Each structure stands twice: as C-alpha cells, then as structure tokens.
Amino acid sequence: MLLTLIRHAKSSWSDLSLDDFDRPLNERGNRDAPKMARWFFGNIQKTPIFFTSPANRALSTAKYFKKEFSPVKLNVVGDLYHANLQDYESLILENNHEKHIVIFGHNPTISYVAEEMLKFKTIYLKTCSICQINLIEPNTLIGELNFIKSPKDLA
Predict the structure, then answer these.
(1) pLDDT for the residue 137
(2) What CATH number is attached to the domain comprising 85?
(3) In 3D, which of 88, 95, 56 has the Cα closest to residue 73?
C-alpha cells in the first residue's frame, strides 16, 4: 500500500482575528499547492483516496490536488485537526485495503508520523511537501521511503 503524507501549503497570518482553524492559504500557498499537485499527479501510478483535516489551509490544499485528478474521493476527517500519531495510525489501518491513500495534515504530527513509519528521526515536512511511503506490511505501519518533495525542489 502507498501512503502519501502532504503538509498543507503556506498559510496566512495577515488577519490575526481569525481562529487558527480558519486561516487561509497565503499567496505562496496558493502558488505552491497547484504546482505540487500537477507534479504529484504526473508522477503517481495508483489512483489515491484523499483524507484531509477540515482546517481551511489543509482543505484548500487538498482541493488543489483534487482539481488535478477529479475522480479522487475527498474525505474530510475531523480528527486530523490537532491529530496525534494514534489518529493517523487508526485512519491508515481502517483503510489499509486501499492501494494508495493520501493524507493532508499539519505539523508537527505529520512529520512525526513519517519519522515513526520510516524509523528516521530527521524528517521535517515543510509547507506543501509530499512524503510518499511504501508500507511493506499494511498492518504493521512500517514503510520504506519512496520520496520527499518540496515546492523548492520544483523551482
């Protein structure tokens, strides 16, 4: 099974009256998300199923990716906002019958999930970075790194 972890694109802090949950993407985020989405769908083999945090910045990022690959199903999962490792593990295990799942989430947890599955302690996903893991045994949540790609890698 393929697992792709995507950190949301760069968000805006220009309106401090907004709740964290409601923060939108900033100009860079709105530029990086479609660029990364085009690259991603030009480089994948298996049709994914999307899961995203309901926070505005994650959902907006996921929608850019969905636009590039319209038959993709987008599932909004409330537990992905302020998620912990167990929330991710539960979601992955519930869907381990799928060939490819994509999760849009937030740091620090999304980077921590990658570290735990890959047994690396040096993973930090920058905004709009994509980390793809090949889960060796879908029930064990141990995987091998396929790639990590950030918007700067495509510049």
Answers:
(1) 80
(2) 3.40.50.1240
(3) 95
